[in-house]
Amino acid sequence: ILSLSPFADVFSVEGVEGRSVELHCPITVPLSQVYMVLWFKDNAGIPLYSVDVRDKISRQPAHWSAPEVFGSRAKFNIDKSPASLLIKNLKRHDQGVYRCRIDFRTIQTQTYRYNLSVIVLPEQPVVLDRWGRHLNGTKLGPKEEGDDVVITCRVSGGRPQPEVRWLINGVIVDDQYEQNSGDVIENRLLWPTIQRSDLNAIFTCQTMNTKLVEPKETSYVLDMHLKPLTIKVINPPATLVADKRYEIVCQSTGSRPNAIITWYKGKRQMRRTRDETVDHNTTTSTLSFAPTTEDDGKTLTCRAENPNVNGLFLETDWKMNVVYPPMVTIQLGPTLVVDDIKEGDDVYFECHVRANPDWKRLQWFHNDVLLQYNGSARIIQSGQSLVLQKVTKQSAGYYACSAINAEGETVSDQQHLRVKRNNRNAILIGASRNENVEIPCHIFADPPARSFHWRFNNSAEILPVDAHRYTSQGNISILNYAPVTDQDFGTLTCWAVNEVGPQSQPCTFQLVLADLPSPVSNCSLPNRTQQFAEIQCTPGYDGGLPQVFVLELVSKRTGTRRFNFSNKNEPFFVLDRLEKLSALMTLENNSLSCVVYAINQKGRSTPVLIQDFEIGRIQPYRAVTERRADAIEWLPIAVGILLTVIILALSISTKTYL
């Protein structure tokens, strides 16, 4: 700051200790007319800084700064307009009157005088409580409504004497201060009867003795303990069903810290509760409660209380009205994980009913539409369970069940069923516990892969696979993996890295717990004539892997397999032109028996012999894997040296899988 002193040609300049200040010394003529620039302090006759421009050869001014005064802290900028002496890192003893003298070649010497005042900033303010103890941290309190805030701000040092004032939320509320002892200044603030609205108010002690720098300040945030303002039961039901599990919610606002909510039935405290903090001002408590007929007319009480202040509580009462239609709940099978159901899984729901009198009829709904039970559609009701076999995306949605007794009908809440799509690109690998499997990861890369990486994901966690568990050479990596527990089954991904970068789409392997498929059962021949036969069986457990059903015709004379047919959908086969095969077997003096079994990645099931079905000299021509009426034909076969050649025509249905 520069200002003109009442004394002629003396300018007042303020600088802050430790910072920089400039003292101007204007040069109004060309530099070629200047001999020297000299700086003096107070009444000293010896300069403390000089600039000599008399060297006509180099024409570069020669600067000199007295080391015992400024040394390298000062620099005169002769090219600046106006020219000025820059003093860095001001010291307290730099204060004084400075004189700049400019000697010219042809004109009279010019002189400028500056009265430099060095301002010493005060120390950082400290705050004391009413008992004179230092406040630590940034929190003031906690206080309660109606309390007084009594705090003192203390500031030490500073030249000139600093101001000390209190601000609340940036507004000055007290600027009256007094000198304590020596260079200590104090300002004591009394802020009476604080209110709820003062919560989080910012109390700031501020000190300053110059406008050259921002004030120093210390701030505290007011913390308060507040009593609850409201309490209510959220949407209490008009009636309660006996023995039905209810979740009743009570909400309280206004308490700080959040209220503790307790429930009472009469004078007995209810323990089955779950508390939840919605935000910093609202607390809810959920009472899980199954009323009985004896609870009708009793009072349920919800109480909210500040946990840190005794006696600060609110409560509300609710008189219960209990009636007795069925209590119905729907639940996904306990062995199922709601977020891990995918296409092809078997799913079942359980409908839990508590009713007086007992329920008479139970119904199931899918997306509010009454379900019709259909074995072919794999929708089966068994007792109070609904079984969905081999679910698809169409099986997803909201399920509910209802029960009816003499008091009325009750429909359960809806249970959402989410069906995940299978990873169509994943390679399915079945393994038993403790079975070591080798999983090859083949990639095509140019340039070749430099490294491979494997990762395991079982939905609960994602883990990198240690490098010692797989071997890599060229563009193939082989992982040796032995699952031990159910958590060891999941998704394995493999990717390679070459000079271009990492593989964009990793190879995916789905490792599932698998075993041999179970044998088929209940085999029958629903339709049979001399020309054709239908063979129908019930599939067994697939072992956790996709299974294919196989029908074989086996020579009874040699035990060798003569013909086999497969169906990937179901154990159903149609054989026609049996009379020609029967004639052939007669000529060979042979007969064929029929067995059916299932195959998956782990192997084949125990074959099942079709009873009462023996083809005397019959060779089937085609197995139809769908229930539609496609004919079965037989390949032409030349029969021995006997005079008869029996020609069989074989036509394979477009949906037959061999």
Short description:
The chain has 658 residues and is mostly beta strands. The protein is 2% helix and 47% strand. It has 6 domains: 10-119, Sandwich (Immunoglobulin-like); 126-225, Immunoglobulin-like, CATH 2.60.40.10; 230-320, Immunoglobulin-like (Sandwich), CATH 2.60.40.10; 324-417, Immunoglobulin-like, CATH 2.60.40.10; 427-513, Immunoglobulins (Immunoglobulin-like), CATH 2.60.40.10; 521-615, Immunoglobulins (Immunoglobulin-like).
Number of domains: 6
Distance between the termini: 99 Å
Counted beta strands: 54
What is the mean predicted local confidence, pLDDT?
85
CATH topology of the largest domain: Immunoglobulin-like
Secondary structure: elements and pairs:
Blueprint: E1 2-4, E2 10-16, E3 21-24, E4 34-41, E5 49-52, E6 62-65, E7 74-77, E8 84-87, E9 96-104, E10 110-119, E11 126-128, E12 139-144, E13 149-156, E14 163-168, E15 171-174, E16 178-179, E17 184-191, E18 202-208, E19 216-225, E20 230-233, E21 240-241, E22 246-253, E23 260-265, E24 268-270, E25 273-277, E26 282-289, E27 299-305, E28 313-319, E29 322-323, E30 327-332, E31 347-354, E32 361-366, E33 369-370, E34 379-382, E35 385-388, E36 397-405, E37 408-411, E38 415-417, E39 427-431, E40 437-442, E41 451-457, E42 462-464, E43 470-473, E44 476-481, E45 490-497, E46 507-513, E47 521-528, E48 532-538, E49 548-555, E50 561-567, E51 572-576, H1 578-588, E52 592-600, E53 603-604, E54 608-615
Parallel strand pairs: 2-10, 12-19, 21-29, 39-46
Antiparallel strand pairs: 1-2, 3-8, 4-5, 4-9, 5-6, 7-8, 9-10, 11-13, 13-17, 14-15, 14-18, 16-17, 18-19, 20-22, 22-26, 23-24, 23-27, 25-26, 27-28, 30-31, 31-35, 32-33, 32-36, 34-35, 36-37, 36-38, 40-44, 41-42, 41-45, 43-44, 45-46, 47-48, 48-51, 49-50, 49-52, 52-53, 52-54
